[in-house]
Amino acid sequence: MKRYIFVIGLFLIVYGLSIGVPTIQAQPYPNRPIQVIIPLAPGSALDITGRFLVEELKKILGTQLIVINKPGASMTLGTDAVVRSKKDGYTIAYTGASSIVYTLATNPEIVPYDPFKDLEPLGLACFLPYVIAVQESSPWKTFSELIDYAKKNPGKLRVSTAGIGNTTHFALEMIQSLTGAEFTHVPYSGGGDFLVGALLGGHVEVIIHIASIVIPHVEAGKFRMLLVTPKMPEFPNVPTITELGYKQDLVTSWLAFYAPAGMPKEVKRVLVPAIENAVKSPELKRKISKLGFFSDYRSPSELKKLSIEDYETALAIAVKIGLRK
Fold this sequence. Notes:
This protein has eleven helices and eleven strands. By secondary structure, it is of the alpha/beta class. It has two domains: 163 residues, D-Maltodextrin-Binding Protein, domain 2 (3-Layer(aba) Sandwich); 100 residues, D-Maltodextrin-Binding Protein, domain 2 (3-Layer(aba) Sandwich), CATH 3.40.190. The strands form two sheets. The chain has a six-stranded mixed beta sheet with strand order 2-1-3-10-4-11, sandwiched between helices. Strands 7-6-8-5-9 form a five-stranded mixed beta sheet, sandwiched between helices. The protein is globular and about 70 Å long.
C-alpha cells in the first residue's frame, strides 16, 4: 500500500512539473528587463531622446528598460551588437540614420551587417531638422534670393557643413543638383561650434546645420533661417525645398527603434504599438521639441521605405562626388 501511494505521489509530482514548464514558457512578453542599446555616448542627442522614450516605454510596457551606451565606428558598433543578439525582443536598438543609411553609403567596409536584412524596423521616433542659415545682416532674405545670387556668381558663396560625407554635405549636394546653383564647400568636422563660429566670423556666407544649434542664434538676432528640412511646426514661415517647387526633399537625420531580424511576431505585436504610443505621447513631444527636434512617428513599413529611399539618394551622391566608386 505504501509502495502504491509512493508511486502515485511520484507520478503527481512529475506530472505537475511537466505541466508547469509550458506555463512558465508561456508567460507573456515582456516578463523581464529589456536592454536598449544606444550606439552613441551619454549626453548625445541620440542618448537624450532615447532616454526620454525609454521612460515612456517603461510606463506602457510595465517593465524595466535598461539603457546601454555602446558608441564607436560611426554608430555601427552598438547597432551590430543588436544584430548579433538573441531574437527574443529583450535587446533592441535606438539608433540613427547614420548606422542604417549614411555610413553604408560612404564606408560600407566598416558596416558588418546589412541594415535592410539583418534588422527589423520597429518605428521611427523623431527627426533632427537641418536648416540653411545666413547672417541676419546678409542681403539674402529668402532661399530663392540666395540661389539667384549663387547662380549669377558660381562658387563665390562659401557653404559650411559638418564634414565631407556628413548628412549636411549630402544636403548641400542635393541643393546644387536641384537648383543648378554652384557653391564652394567648406567642411568643418570639429563639431557644431566650428560651423557657428565660421558664420559668425564671416569665414563663410552660409551654413547647413542642426536646427537646435542654429535656433538660439536666430532668436538672438544674429542668424536668419532660409530653409528647413523637414518642416518644423515651430517655424511655419521657414519653407522646405519642396514647398518652393523643387521635386525632392533634402536628406536629414532621423532616430528610430530596431530589433534583430527574425524577432517573434507575438513580440513585435507588443513592441510596435508601445513605441507608437510612446512617440505620440504629448509629454514626449514637449520634451523633444525643447531640444529643437520633433517627434514624428513612422510605422515599420514607412521607416523601411524611408531608409531605402535615403540610402539610394545618399549612394548616388556619394558616387557623384567621389566618395564611392
